[in-house]
Amino acid sequence: MTSEFGLIQRHFSRATPGAVLGVGDDCALLQPATGMQLAVSTDTLVADVHFFADADPEKLGWKSLAVNLSDLAAMGAAPRWATLALTLPEVDDDWLAAFATGLYRCADQFGVSLVGGDTTRGALSLTLTILGEVPPNQALRRDGAQAGDEIWVSGTLGDAALALAALHGRVNLTDADLITLAARLYTPTPRVELGLALRGLARSAIDVSDGLLADLGHILARSGVGAIVEYTHLPLGEIVHDYAAHPEFDACVLSGGDDYELCFTAPVAHRKALGEIAARLGVRLTAIGSIRAEPGLIVRDAQGQVLDMRHTGYDHFSA
Amino acid sequence: MTSEFGLIQRHFSRATPGAVLGVGDDCALLQPATGMQLAVSTDTLVADVHFFADADPEKLGWKSLAVNLSDLAAMGAAPRWATLALTLPEVDDDWLAAFATGLYRCADQFGVSLVGGDTTRGALSLTLTILGEVPPNQALRRDGAQAGDEIWVSGTLGDAALALAALHGRVNLTDADLITLAARLYTPTPRVELGLALRGLARSAIDVSDGLLADLGHILARSGVGAIVEYTHLPLGEIVHDYAAHPEFDACVLSGGDDYELCFTAPVAHRKALGEIAARLGVRLTAIGSIRAEPGLIVRDAQGQVLDMRHTGYDHFSA
């Protein structure tokens, strides 16, 4: 590593009270809580694949951690530590300062210590690895869904995808609407508190990063079950709702990624408890369908007719 | 992620007996041993910066894990788990199969479970995050060197750097010698067993990845001490020894990276114990100098004359 690149680490060398030893040695040293299990996830964001290369670096800093926190949320794990591997084409101090600002803002909000990393020269990309803790046998996994479970989704669907469709010129939005939806795309809120609250209630969970149908499909595949989703129950924000007749609508709501909401299943008996969680956390929770033993994922309308979802890009063979 | 890229994960989905839950959920779930501390390190290797883009993928798989294991070794931590973030310009099944073979060969040899990862499209780069365990207060840190400590190095220095100099056309080697040295460059052996054996004996340690002077300099900076290194004590392999008169020699031995040996300091009283470890593990251990209170890192010859090391690329201001 050139010394120029070594200096970059200064942007990421804040004190790490959550670690025994933070940045500056061969490894960080961490003290896990006794008896807890560790939840670990790694995500890479590549310029011009996952974000625009000229993206606002502060927002990018937030998002790079937020998407990893979303994975922890989907496991019901409490965030503890993260490492950052940052590859940059050149050293731009202003960019780095803004990126670090966004990253630490997200870290502070969710109680994460950035304990280590690496900085290298190359095409712009970021790899975050996140570590959280969860008591044994309480993690929310993909493989626990059972026939009869209700399927729930937090928040609203399609906001980030509609923003992306507008940015790509496929949808026209007013400036005000674009700004509102772009916040979902650029600075998503990981559902960390919700994930913790769902321990002991949800039988399975996943975060919606690849689209509702694809991600619910992962639960079905791992659990060996099928599902019926009620098209008219899908939770929509006001702006997305107004685009219900647009050709992009179904793709945004059912196959759009980047919302980072949680999709989970729970026994019907937990409906009241889930309502109390929604009220306490101020998070909308919507039952959108049910798990059944018969394999396959179908979406049906208010009349019970099965809808053809191939136009959304969803490949039912992957479920 | 396209399904084409999703399929890549099949190459990295072996059973993970070392994990509660391995690849296939939002996070991996791990059960740390009670009371142990976690050592965590992240390293990125970028094509055409850290390796040739057309490098043998099996060797690259080995090296990408080995360099992370070297960081654990330098902490005296026992390897447990790793995650892999792999960015690829295209899906090449043969390349992936060979890369996975090398990675798992290294993982199996050192008892590491690959528990998760991410695969994305982009310029070729790899980020490994490794997790190991070490009992509280037994980690080998950079900040523990004390005046009077002897400075030790494992193995031999300069082998990998001389191979690289030959591959870049700056040094002529016989084919046999190049093959021998290239093994040090492409498939380094992390000193994991040595790191574990040094718990309770070494006061500080680091792995030699950026060159002896730079890495020893990190120990000095973190410990607030200085050092004298005896030029004639530096441990050399036969091939490197024969190049002692070559203009590249000092740069290879003193500033060459990629040897992944351990440099550590220990009280003189531990000399006998270190000799027994060297014999038991079959690892050469050489005392190359001593720590002193006076700041700065100097190299002196057999006559006690201080040598000018600026031609090695070593910047003494960084110590």
TrEMBL record, chains A, B:
Domain PurM-like C-terminal: 146-300
Residues annotated for Mg(2+) 1 binding in this entry: 42-43, 118
Binding positions for Mg(2+) 5 per the UniProt entry: 210
Keyword ATP-binding tagged: yes
EC number: 2.7.4.16
Binding-site positions, substrate: 50, 258, 314
InterPro entries, A to Z: PurM-like_C_dom (IPR010918), PurM-like_C_sf (IPR036676), PurM-like_N (IPR016188), PurM-like_N_sf (IPR036921), ThiL-like (IPR006283)
GO molecular function ontology, one term from the record: magnesium ion binding
Positions of Mg(2+) 4 binding: 26, 41, 71
Keywords: ATP-binding, Kinase, Magnesium, Metal-binding, Nucleotide-binding, Thiamine biosynthesis, Transferase
Residues involved in Mg(2+) 2 binding: 43, 71
Catalysed reactions, as listed in the record: thiamine phosphate + ATP = thiamine diphosphate + ADP
Pathway(s) where this gene product acts: Cofactor biosynthesis; thiamine diphosphate biosynthesis; thiamine diphosphate from thiamine phosphate: step 1/1
Record: residues binding Mg(2+) 3: 26, 71, 207
Enzyme class: transferase
Note: Reaction mechanism of ThiL seems to utilize a direct, inline transfer of the gamma-phosphate of ATP to TMP rather than a phosphorylated enzyme intermediate.
HAMAP family: TMP_kinase (MF_02128)
Name listed for the protein in its UniProt record: Thiamine-monophosphate kinase
